[in-house]
Structures are given as C-alpha cells and as structure tokens.
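User: Some background: our group keeps a shared notebook of sequences we're curious about, and every so often someone picks one and asks for a predicted structure to add to the entry. Today it's my turn. The entry only has the sequence so far, pasted here. Could you supply the structure so I can complete it?
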Amino acid sequence: MCRLANRTTDSARVLTLWIPAVQFILLVTTAYAQGQEESDRRFSLEGSYLYGEVDGYVQTPSGGESGTTSSRRPSLDEIGISNTSVYDSQFIAALHDNELYLGGQWIRMSGSATLDETLITQGKTFDAGMQVSSEVDLDWYRFGYRRRLSLCQDREWTIWPSAGVAVLDFSYHLRGTDVAADRSYIKLNAQFGLETEWRPRGGPFSLDLVLLVSPPISSSLPQMNVEELVAKYRVFEHQRSELEIIGGVAFEQIYFEDNQNTSNRIKADFGPMIVFGLNWRF
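Assistant: Of course. Here's the predicted structure to add to the notebook entry:
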C-alpha cells in the first residue's frame, strides 16, 4: 500500500511537469504552422527498448545528517540489481528545419539479495546476513528544441543540434526484516544534444549517432548523459508516412549529488545495452 501511495504521489508530481511541456509544444506548433503548406509540417513517434548491464550506488542519508548512510552504499549489485530494462519514447513536431521534442525514459529496477555487510541507509540499519528486496526507479524526461542541418543537398548527411531540459524522477525502496527505507525526489537540469544521420543515397538504410549531455552547472543538479549508435531500416512507406525498425547499442550515465552535509548521491552507469525499436514518421 505504501509503495502504491508513493508512486501515485510521484506520478502526480511528474504530471505537473509534463502538462506545461505538452501545452508548450502544441501551442508553438499550432501557431507557427498557421498559414504554412501541409508539406512543411512533419511528425515522428519513436519507441525503443534497451536492455543491458547497470552498475552504481544510491547513497541515501536522512536529512543530510552524518552517520545516517554508509558511504557510496548500497551499491546496486549488493541489493540484487545488475541488469535492467529501459523503455524510451519520443515525439517530435517539426516545421521546416525547426523541431520540438518531448520524450522520456522509464527505468524501473528491482532485485533481492543477502547483505554481506551491515548497511546504514536513510538512518536505518540493515544487518549483515539480512535478506533484502529493493526497488530503484531512475525515470527521466526531456523536452526542448532542435534544428535540422543538412550537410548535403540530397540530405545524405544530416545533423540536429538540440537544447532543452531534462528532469530526473528518483525513487528508492529497500526492505528487510522489520526495517525499511524509502526516499524519492525530482530534480532538473539543462541538456544539450547532437544527433547525426547518414543515409546513403537517400535510401531506406541509415546510421544514427545520438549524444545527450547535462552540463555540470552545479553539484546539486542531476546529469543524464546518453551515447547511442543505431541502424534504422525503412520497412514501409506510403505518401507522407513511413515506418522504420531500429537496432543498435547504447551507453548511459546518471549522476546526482546534492549539497547537504552528507549528500544524497546517485551514480548509475548503464551499458552496453542493446536497443530495439520502431520509428513512425508522418
């Protein structure tokens, strides 16, 4: 019941962030598209599944007080998390070479293990030899602007520099015998990106490189970084609509450390992860 209540509260908080972003994209796209030819407008919807290794830790004190958390613990491995699934989706609305994007990743990890060493987290003590179950969510969302730049007349080589905002939605639950720890918070930062596409002779095959980075503006802002290389192949095309299949490899890093006396600190390194997905352009 507690878990459901916490996630319901978190979902409501995230919804308050998504609603203005959606309204912004819809209003700007509608206003900017007025009086334009229909052929100038483009949309795409992409969904992908990523699976691979993850390593890191979720240091979680209580009120920033010293002695309320073990240093750089618990590690994900010691609470039974070594691999994870990631679900990613993104919507793009484009007019001419200007594009607005809205997307997110849902990273829900869970596991169980027996502690080799005594662990202190959020002021709670989990003794060595205790069986624990864990749930760590590292969902994050992104929205912003990017611009298409064609380096060849036939669009064989295209790049998209981007600038926007990324929002981290963190949730942590650890349960043992008669003891439990729960913590969640939402943090945001700027995020910049560069996507490149090489499409030989404008054909059905393309090779895409995606780089996203959140700058270390402040130690109290989260960093969500992505390096992804995928191949896309067009399997369907009719008038303005086309469908592509996606396959490739990705690496990601999430890091956060606040400025309390004893910091909340997250470090998660993902990869290599395999990527499968679909991209629908219309």
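Suggested note for the entry: The domain at 2-281 is CATH 2.40.160.20 (Porin). The longest strand covers residues 41-59.
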